[in-house]
Request: fold
Amino acid sequence: MTSYKLNNKNLSKFSDEALIPQYDRSTLKTGIVHVGIGGFHRSHEAYYTDQLLHDPANSDWGICGIALLDFDTKIYNTLKEQDGLYTLIVKELDGTLTKKIIGSIVEYLYAPENPTQVIEKMASNDVKIITLTITEGGYNYNEATGSFDFTNPLVQQDLEHPQAPKTIFGYLTQALKLRKERGLPGCTIQSCDNIQGNGHMTEKMLLSFVHMAEPDLVPWIKSNISFPNAMVDRITPATSEKDIALLKETSGIEDAWPVVCEPFKQWVIEDDFISGRPAWENVGAQFVEDVVPYEKMKLSLLNAGHSVLGILGALIGYETIDESVQNKAIQTFLHSYMDEEVSPTLGDLEGVDLKKYKQSLLQRFGNIYIKDQIDRICSESSAKIPIFILPTVNAQLENDGPVDHAAFVIAAWAIYSAGLDEQGNPLNIKDALETLLKEKALVAKNSPTSFLEIESVFGKLNQSKRFVDIYTAAYQNILKYGVEECITQMNNK
Ligand code: CS2
Reply:
């Protein structure tokens, strides 16, 4: 099949192969600045917004995508070459592919090259919302101290060179300062990361930084900026070379970085937008007064479920999440973890059928066409475990409730962090704390509790004798019998 590069000029050539934007992108205003234009933003917020832009009444809500980090050049160059266009490939449960070219990203900036332009864009009067997907670790929160981590060298550099920031906090501070100086209205800063109370976290971390960098700006931020909490959901694996080749061969679309995702999507948002917002509810988002229960449910069931499948599967030697789901012993283990350890901590979830939700997760995780990479799921576990699993553990410890499954997963993670699977094959570990994790994981072979001493991850967990005993027994059992044998025994109890 003849293929063409994806860009504005060629867009109409793809109308038989994919859904293409049916709106005039050249007339859109940029009302949203988004920081972190990886796969998830492009399968989620940019997708919802694209749907909305089909109604001309919404033409104020184009997106400017910001690539913040030095190594974000690939995504920036791709968007630049493709006029911001990319293909979203939805892998349906029956294996069919729904292809949609998304047009909502109308501008793109590479922050390391042009910090001033980024600050100006964030301060622009047209921009009403700044949204973020900067990953769980990007909020610079230290679990041990419960506060902003000023020891981060990038933060130090932002305090010393405010005009050339490196972190999101430096950028936001400069942009909000300009807004204040120019007498412009405030805006909404909306996190789209998997963090309990992600709006509260964004506010708390930003204000900590501003207190140090620009103390006079604090009161203005408090009165002019809103930080709605939100629960975001759509499984979006890393795009593989195979996905790129298949798109070209079967649809004639040459797209250097399409996005693949599952059909399911959910976005539950607190309606707290100080300068207005798009009517995302018209395209499936839910606006609610209190998003906390939804976030808790999603983080402690879906994201934690992913970590359980990822860490156990990695040790056994699997590469994708559906392989873990197909292992009956792991599936039963995950069921018990959800039912016995997580569900009792969730409290009242009005209007949610928890049983159905859990069943649907197993179906989503098991989608054999998604091939979500275990490496992706296990990456940055040191930032994920404290958010996805430890709140459940702490709640259960407080109530003298069960923690066996969670302790088992943490023991498995300690073994994983030493770098080899059960066959002795090297694991591809990607984690900001990789060196520390490995150091502690190697000592753990003789003294398992040393892994729990990483305070920035576990806080004071090693002071719970009950947890430590269960964890230590699990650690020793895994080394002796292997993951599969151990969980089979646990499942039979
Ligand atoms: C995953 C998430 O990163 C992870 O560990 O659990 O990326 C997950 O796929 C998304 O939150 C789904 O909404």
The mean pLDDT is 97. Residues 339 and 358 are 9 Å apart (CA to CA). The first helix runs from residue 39 to 43. The two ends are 57 Å apart (CA to CA).
